[in-house]
Description:
Shape: globular
Largest sheet: 5 strands, parallel
Distance between the termini: 12 Å
Strand content: 5-15%
Strand order of the largest sheet: 1-5-4-2-3
Order of helices and strands: EHEHHEEHEH
Oligomer: single chain
Radius of gyration: 31 Å
Amino acid sequence: xxxxxxxxxxxxxxxxxxxxxxxxxxxxxxxxxxxxxxxxxxxxxxxxxxxxxxxxxxxxxxxxxxxxxxxxxxxxxxxxxxxxxxxxxxxxxxxxxxxxxxxxxxxxxxxxxxxxxxxxxxxxxxxxxxxxxxxxxxxxxxxxxxxxxxxxxxxxxxxxxxxxxxxxxxxxxxxxxxxxxxxxxxxxxxxxxxxxxxxxxxxxxxxxxxx
Length: 211
């Protein structure tokens, strides 16, 4: 189904409705609940506190006997697989990476932990990824396993990356197959939110192909 372009506003959580006092009155400030007070002595001419009546003893015929029902093996109820929320941010191939960076900033500003975010590029790698790979793949993937910061990966190697709650895809060029690969990987690795930055027509055509 074609996606409707959305503004790059990411709301990670929403506060529930607040209780409103009836008739527009201002709710009184709650006061601390006092502890238990000793029973007040009865005044002259007033009866003391009434005692509760003793419980009525029922005869066996008044008591309903519950019949045990045959118990069988518990049947597990299959749970529906969680589907990540999909959001499209329109951008050109030249501006897709910048749009992805803005999306990451909004995620972090909304309270997301940096280690929750994975960014996948389809064209040129992110400058951070290119810099870290210059020191060798071993050091690069050590930072991925640490999960203490946003991780950037090219679509050609993103299959090795683990799942994260949020995956951002920057369709910043590259062959058409790269976009299909990136979107397929992103769908499998995104736990809660999938953000795609790129040309809506191209993305819809890739999604319409059953990716």
